[in-house]
Design goal:
Layout: H1 6-24, H2 31-38, E1 44-48, E2 64-69, H3 72-84, E3 88-93, E4 106-112, H4 121-131, E5 132-143, H5 149-166, H6 174-180, E6 184-191, E7 196-202
Parallel strand pairs: 1-2, 1-4, 2-3, 4-5
Antiparallel strand pairs: 5-7, 6-7
């Protein structure tokens, strides 16, 4: 299984590391969603596609985060974010397809704004389900196709360019991806014309 086209996308995301590091220091549109979603993160936390560490400001300081990203420059930014927010964390640089985390080891598994980049997002959710402890929680904040038809049409139109320029799809069907996954969704909210999905789910292990 190859979850990501590494060679191309690592370069794309390395170039964005400084931008995302600056962005995480500001109150942006997604700040309130991150705060709401991550308020319940507890214990041993696994965060995939940690990026520049935009979530560290919203974790309770009692957690321990294991963070993965395939972009070395993003991981360097995330290390700084963890230190600034006094979050204990271990960092790994690598593709999720090669990750070898122990099964059932994490109380909380987190992904924010990463499902857009994977060639097989359902497989990624299956891996998250495997790494989460029995009845542990999986928290997702993702962007996808709008529920508003004109916007969805525009997203379909710009998707090839967006993939080429920033490495992610504009038109992912998040609800369909969830339905095809093993996750037990407990709560699913859609915001911003249905383009932002917040998901609270449980492992089905």
């Amino acid at each position: 299984m190859v979850a990501i086209d590494n060679e191309r996308l690592v370069k794309v995301f390395d170039k964005q590391a400084d931008k995302w590091d600056r962005r995480r220091r500001k109150q942006t549109l997604d700040s309130k969603w991150r705060r709401q979603l991550l308020a319940g993160a507890r214990g041993q936390v696994l965060e995939i596609a940690v990026g520049a560490g935009g979530n560290f400001a919203y974790y309770d300081r009692s957690v321990h985060v294991t963070a993965l990203d395939f972009s070395p420059l993003m991981v360097e930014k995330a290390k700084g974010a963890a230190k600034e927010n006094r979050i204990e964390a271990d960092f790994f640089v690598g593709d999720i397809a090669a990750a070898d985390f122990p099964e059932g080891a994490y109380d909380t598994v987190v992904s924010t704004l990463s499902m857009c980049a994977y060639s097989d997002p359902v497989w990624v959710l299956e891996q998250m389900n495997r790494w989460c402890r029995e009845d542990g929680q999986i928290l997702l904040l993702e962007h996808g196709k709008s529920a508003f038809t004109p916007l969805a049409w525009l997203q379909n139109l710009v998707d090839p360019l967006q993939v080429r320029m920033v490495g992610c799809h504009a038109n992912r069907d998040i609800e369909g991806i969830l339905n095809a996954s093993p996750l037990k969704v407990e709560r699913h909210e859609r915001h911003f014309f249905g383009m932002v999905d917040m998901v609270w789910a449980r492992s089905s292990r």
